[in-house]
Amino acid sequence: MDDLETVSIPLTYFDSGAAGTGLTFAFILATTTPFDPSQVDSAISRAAKKWRLLAGRLEQDKKSKSWSIRVPTASQLPEGYKTHNFSTSTFVQDDPLEIFTDNSDHLSKNSPFLSVHCALATDRVHIGISIPHGVFDGSGLGLCWKAISAELKGMEWEVPVLQKENPLAAAVKQSGYIGGEKTSAGFASPWRDWEAPTFWSMARLIVSLGKEYLWHKAENGEIRLGKDVVEFIAERIKQEVVDASDGKEWVSTGDALFAWLLKTAYTNEETSGSKVSSTMLSPPDFASQENTTDSRYERRMYSIRGLFPTIDGFSDNTLEQYPHNGFLPSPVAEFKASELHAMSYGQLAVAHRQAIVSSRNVSQAVDYSTWVESIGGSAVPVRRGGQDSWLFSNHCQADLAEGIEWGQGTRLEGHWIFAFPVTPDHAVTINKVRDGIILMSAMRKSRWRSVRVELERIKVEMAAK
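Above: the chain's sequence. Below: its structure in token form.
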């Protein structure tokens, strides 16, 4: 890119914390007419030429280890310039997408960081997009999908403003907070369940993966909860909380679903002595399903983007369309499995609510970023002996499955998501779809059985009413 007119967009240590990992999100389509993958390729090219950030190349400062994106700004891109990686294959397995590589690989190859693959079969196609997690989070990936969808439909779309500075870094600086305040009493620091990627931390993670997948027969599975099921579960737990607190406590639909999944997974482990910790990477926001004042409050508060309402000196002075990493870990109180089993759903939902309220503030955000910088700019999940460490990642705000239309002769059948280099054990992703939500997880077979049995029981109870 030496002979190109460019601008360097700096990333932050919120991005560095996810460096070395990748995200792949895929749509599974049933087709009744031949599918032309070139329409997807062309749509992405058009989107990247309008939103030049997508056509950038990753750079890293060798001294500070910080990342930036070198973005071409010339009115016309030179002939042969690749805006993205695109490939096709014949469908040969259930999950045909390659897991595209991490930041360092894109850096060494000076290649596009946006990769798309179409796996074709006679009556269906898998279409997936992959990006380094050290560049975009789920919300940023959602912005990519929306841009591609608009181009496929020939519609106008709002191109995010290309900022010459990083607005999140500017917002942190403008906050005036320099770090070091104590965490609220009784609550852990945001990095409780993370650590530096040393030889021993990676070894512990590999041993944990082996134990879960080989010994406990962990499965990468999913359950789909229709809007009626989500409402049924949430309303019961919300009412329990209101009754138990005489109306003094409030929990959201996201709090309720977190409590339902985690507690239900341990249904048959009432005598277990293992500890259970859990961290929400981006708290659930189900505002589209909860048209109340509280839900609007949630939308403002729960994303790190909402911690900084306005930013001085930027043409787009909000973080609404900020595509890079904006997640802030919210550690929930730790319990023994037996304690978790004895708790009510409402009590666990309140614990989740309290953790979020404690962590969603500017001081915690700045301290987390400072901690990532202090460990060298990358982090991996902690694995401790005798403890299940859960990570919940919510993608509902990104609307990853909303609004995509692939043309006549196609019908959306499903979605799937995975991370590079491997989906960690005890990891849960939450995605919103048109008719409800999908919970995906790498979970023990016995725990999946408990969750699915309870879900079927709920459906029977609902049908009897």
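The chain is about 35% helix and 25% strand.
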